[in-house]
Amino acid sequence: MVDAREQPIGVFDSGFGGLTVVRSLIDLMPNESLVYIGDTGRYPYGNKPAAKVRNYALEIADSLIRDHGVKAIVVACNTAASAALDTLVDTLPVPVIGVIEPGARALARVTHNGKVGVIGTVGTIASGAYDAAVEATGAEVVLTSAACPGLVEFVERNQVDGEEVSLLTERLLSPLKSAGVDALLLGCTHYPYLAPVIQRVMGDGVVLVSSANETAFAVREMLDAHELAAPSSQVAQRRFLSSGDVDAFATLGRRLLGPELGEVAAWHSGAAS
Ligand code: DGL
Question: Which pLDDT tens digit goes with each residue over 130-180?
Fold first, then answer.
């Protein structure tokens, strides 16, 4: 009989961004097996209608359960979580967690002046998911949000520094600087790779919050609550799949995540992009 605790955790994103969450999951729970799907064949999600992103998310989650027998799902993409988390939670037979609530809780915790910011894709910011999540923390904070189209594309091209990146980042972050925020949530899982530029633009007085670590802690709690944590003696198996160019995914993915990213297999979506 299959022991559910030994089954992998399924993680997905539109591309490489979710690897920031995978890094934190591996560091916190090195014995947990993982299956990661990077939907690079249909990325970016951030500028697509929410209904389309929701369909992608449902399709990937379904494949993680059906083809890989995952015991839980981590939506390691803010855009997908803002479009589909409620539907996934309501319809899937396994526990599901997103990156939005854990990040919002951390943001509310670290601010001193009560002025907080969040940056994300057009889809995430337009959804209002962060306004709702920050409000749900009950913290007395004022949230300033800014969509940052273009930043994800830089990461996917492995262009994480230089003048072009700095100039766009400065322009996109100016509303956050004017608002005087002292804590800024990187509300897109790709953005931690741009943290050095974002920190330089915002200045040393602003704390950058990445949802990756917070999400990993929330995943551990969720597994414990469902008695699904892997036995401590388990040797983790990690599988990486991409709907785009698997060699390109392996090369850049390894640079971003580290040596844990071994071979990359093809994942085929049934839907047209
Ligand atoms: N990494 C995804 C997120 O957290 C977005 C990337 C995209 O636009 O596809 O929102």
Answer: 999 999 999 999 999 999 999 999 998 999 999 999 999 999 999 999 999
The residue type at 134 = V
CA–centroid distance, 151 to ligand 1, in Å, is 10
Q: Could you tell me if the CB of 124 is within 6 A of ligand 1? A: yes
Q: What is 100-211's CATH number?
A: 3.40.50.1860
Is residue 125 classed exposed, middle or buried when 0-12, 13-18 and 19+ CB atoms within 10 A define those classes? buried
Total-model pTM:
0.95
Q: For the domain 4-98+213-272, what is the CATH code?
A: 3.40.50.1860
**Cβ(82) to ligand 1 under 6 A?**
no
pLDDT tens-digit readout, 4-62: 999 999 999 999 999 999 999 999 999 999 999 999 999 999 999 999 999 999 999 99
45 lines ligand 1 (CB under 6 A): yes
Angular region, 3: left φ>0, alpha ψ -120 to 50, beta rest: beta
Query: Residue 135: CB partners within 8 Å, gap ≥ 6?
Result: none
Choosing from 21, 108, 188, 206, which is the catalytic residue? 188
- On the question of a common fold for 4-98+213-272 and 100-211, the answer reads yes
Any ligand 1 atom below 6 A from CB of 43: yes
Domain ranges of the chain: 4-98+213-272, 100-211
Given 22, 57, 72, 77, the catalytic residue: 77
Tallying the residues shown for the chain, one arrives at 273
148 is catalytic: no
